[in-house]
């Protein structure tokens, strides 16, 4: 391969026969462009033109193609179009025979920071998660993933009403000159999530018993403290014979609610994130979030296929990070 560099233009070009790979000098300095050139020109690891025709045929501003897999019967293209006010997302997934998703009539608070609902994945899909991936997710959740997502369960909802200010006190001890123990209380102003996580199905009693047996629940005067949640005091309770809830102590349900029948839905009001918390995020992410008002995604059954739709709405009072 021949290498050409233009310091004035800030570009690096690799030439291999009649094929050209172009990158910035910054990328070339990290040797990334050499690795990509090796994959493309020598190892020939690239997407075939015939496969890319599915993307170009969609005639959209942006497309993502999901290739045929263990549960996708044929390649699927997720397309997105945008204007000055919103991005719309749409796609159809055609699953193989035997892979079917049930729908649930979900009710959700309309004014929450984020609300997510989804039905229990079929065993053919859930089993595609590798053991290492399940272990990673379990470490994030702070409890065993397989102990919750049981085939007998029907659906799950998470309502993050908001992130609210709170007061947390920490007790430490020091000693005076006579070696007497002196208690010291430090009061901190903190931000705590206000949430409600609900499991619905025939196996909720098994989940409750497993959490009790493995020390995830601690008996207190206020109820069964859910130990895996470190950010706010949360309590687990059996709402009825087929529902189990983990609810934070500061949670207040909304009076207004909406409804949707689907396999999966997610609604987020990004404009409701407290400004004080944005300082913990990278600057570029803060800029991106500041221009987005809300995000809505859902998946529904439609004649044997699954239709995915979504809308990303911009905030009218803040300039866009880029021109959609």
Tell me the strand percentage band.
over 45%
Query: pLDDT below 50 for ≥5 consecutive residues: which ranges?
Result: 320-324
The residue-averaged pLDDT reads 86
Terminal CA distance reads 38 Å
Number of strands: 18
Sketch the major β-sheet.
13 strands, antiparallel
Please, could you describe this protein's structure?
The chain has 324 residues and is of the alpha+beta class. The protein has a domain at 1-46. It is built from 8 helices and 18 strands. It has helices at 25-29, 32-42, 49-57, 123-126, 131-141, 204-213, 275-278, 283-290; strands at residues 2-6, 11-16, 19-24, 62-66, 76-82, 86-93, 104-109, 114-119, 153-175, 181-201, 217-220, 223-226, 234-240, 243-248, 257-262, 264-268, 292-302, 305-314. The strands form 3 sheets. A 13-stranded antiparallel beta sheet has the order 4-5-6-18-17-16-8-9-10-14-13-12-11, with helices on both faces. It is globular, with a radius of gyration of 25 Å.
Descriptive key words:
single chain; 324 residues; alpha+beta; 13-stranded antiparallel sheet; three-stranded antiparallel sheet; 8 helices; 19% helix; disordered C terminus
How is this structure best summarized?
With 324 residues, the protein is of the alpha+beta class. Helices cover 19% and strands 45% of the residues.
How do the strands and helices of this protein lay out in sequence?
Layout: E1 2-6, E2 11-16, E3 19-24, H1 25-29, H2 32-42, H3 49-57, E4 62-66, E5 76-82, E6 86-93, E7 104-109, E8 114-119, H4 123-126, H5 131-141, E9 153-175, E10 181-201, H6 204-213, E11 217-220, E12 223-226, E13 234-240, E14 243-248, E15 257-262, E16 264-268, H7 275-278, H8 283-290, E17 292-302, E18 305-314
Antiparallel strand pairs: 1-2, 2-3, 4-5, 5-6, 6-18, 7-15, 8-9, 8-16, 9-10, 10-14, 11-12, 12-13, 13-14, 16-17, 17-18
